[in-house]
Write a structure and sequence with these properties.
Blueprint: E1 2-6, H1 7-17, E2 32-38, E3 43-49, E4 53-60, E5 62-65, E6 67-72, H2 73-82, E7 87-92, E8 97-102, E9 108-112, E10 114-115, E11 129-134, H3 135-145, E12 160-166, E13 169-175, E14 179-186, E15 190-191, E16 200-206, H4 207-214, E17 223-228, E18 232-237, E19 240-245, H5 254-257, E20 264-269, H6 270-281, E21 296-300, E22 303-310, E23 313-320, E24 322-325, E25 329-333, H7 335-343, E26 349-354, E27 361-365, E28 372-377
Antiparallel strand pairs: 1-5, 1-7, 2-3, 2-6, 3-4, 4-19, 6-10, 7-8, 8-9, 11-15, 11-17, 12-13, 12-16, 13-14, 14-28, 17-18, 18-19, 20-24, 20-26, 21-22, 21-25, 22-23, 26-27, 27-28
Helix pairs in contact: 1-2, 6-7
Length: about 375
């Protein structure tokens, strides 16, 4: 394989590919990038794959001799970064001796690549169902629910976000067992089903895939395409294709989790409540050996009193509320869980609804222009 690349084009193409290179040091082939050069089209295809998700892109180059190989991703990125500007020539002979050199040959690297045959078999990137959505809209949705996705939970569905597409209506849900984020939106979706049948697609995206996808998705009105196969999800964003395994399981009955009735309801300022929790977070430490994790206590009366007590000190706040119904209630919450939800609420008012000290709180931001968002947070048990 012999090909000549523009340094800046090659470097910008490698960056996003790095996001799905394996960092577990278990198999040398998945710590590398599969490079495939097509002489007829003067196209180079770059692929990375960590056995769960992968990224593929193509770039133009001058292919002198077609071929393919695997080059360690970190080594390739570091070499290209340090090369002088201008054309870069990559040559790989039949013994896999690899030479990367500048146009004038003054900068020169010589090392061994791996055979392309060692790269794991890639999933078939074909699907007959899908839709297109503006990138800015998808980015906004994911950022609002990402915080409630579980991390390495033994129950797979808690490690992903549930998507339900019905014609123009998009529903996205995440839940980690302690909190739940739910949104509904009449979205600007374009039907990309091969059969042109009405959109009705249900799938669960792993949280780790969404994190990597956000690195590709921009705040732009340009569309991205999402295609759903039996076991794979395919995301086409610009010149990149990110593919990932689906979480193959039925999602939880999230509507049953969120209370339908409440005994106490009131409106308050999201900004004021967020400020109170940020102050509480300053004195809350993580769980120490043999101690209970501090909580934030709500005392609801004519005003909302928020108090926190820990070994670092205590903090107290009062927030004015517009009560709709109910009398008094004392309830406690994990500070981080509540603050995570408040960080994705826009400034403005929100309605908080409570049933009793054991059921939790339903938070409904009142910005109707951005669809219906609901957050549910389970309470903590008070010890004093």
């Amino acid at each position: 394989m012999i090909a000549i690349f523009d340094k800046d084009t090659l470097l910008s193409s490698i960056g996003p590919i790095m996001n799905t290179v394996s960092g577990k040091n278990t198999m040398a082939c998945i710590e590398g990038i599969l490079i495939e050069c097509n002489q007829e089209e003067n196209i180079c295809t770059l692929t990375s794959y960590d056995l769960e998700k992968g990224t593929r892109t193509q770039l133009e180059c001058q292919v002198i001799e077609r071929g393919k190989c695997i080059i360690n991703a970190n080594k390739l990125l570091q070499i290209i970064r340090t090369m002088p500007k201008g054309p870069i020539k990559i040559s790989v002979d039949t013994s896999l001796r690899t030479v990367i050199e500048s146009e004038n040959g003054l900068s020169h690297f010589d090392f061994k690549a791996l055979s392309a045959s060692e790269f794991p078999t890639l999933p078939e990137l074909r699907a007959d169902r899908g839709f297109k959505i503006p990138q800015y809209l998808f980015r906004k949705f994911v950022n609002k629910i990402l915080f409630a996705i579980g991390q390495n939970d033994t129950r797979p569905v808690f490690n992903g976000a549930y998507f339900e597409i019905r014609d123009k209506k998009m529903t996205v849900v995440s839940c980690d067992g302690n909190r739940l984020a739910h949104l509904e939106y009449e979205a600007e979706l374009e039907n990309a089903n091969d059969s042109k049948a009405p959109l009705y697609i249900l799938f669960i995206v792993p949280g780790k895939t969404l994190v990597e996808l956000l690195k590709l998705v921009k705040d732009t009105e340009e569309t991205m395409e999402i295609r759903v196969a039996n076991r794979q999800l395919i995301f086409k964003v610009g010149k990149y294709v990110l593919f990932s395994k689906k979480i193959e399981s039925a999602y939880i009955d999230y509507e049953r989790i969120m209370p339908k009735q409440s005994n106490i309801e009131f409106y308050l300022s999201c900004e004021e409540l967020r400020g109170a929790f940020e102050r509480s977070a300053l004195i809350i430490e993580d769980n120490l050996a043999g101690t209970l994790r501090p909580y934030v206590k709500f005392t609801i009366d004519e005003v909302l009193s928020i108090s926190t007590l820990s070994s670092n000190g205590n903090v107290y706040d009062e927030i004015q509320i517009e009560k709709i119904k109910g009398d008094e209630l004392v309830i406690a919450f994990n500070c981080k869980f509540f603050l995570d939800a408040l960080k994705v609420c826009d400034n403005g008012k929100a309605k908080l609804s409570f049933v009793n000290p054991l059921t939790g709180v339903l938070i409904e931001p009142q910005n109707t222009d951005e669809g219906k968002f609901t957050y549910f947070i389970m309470p903590m048990r008070m010890t004093h």
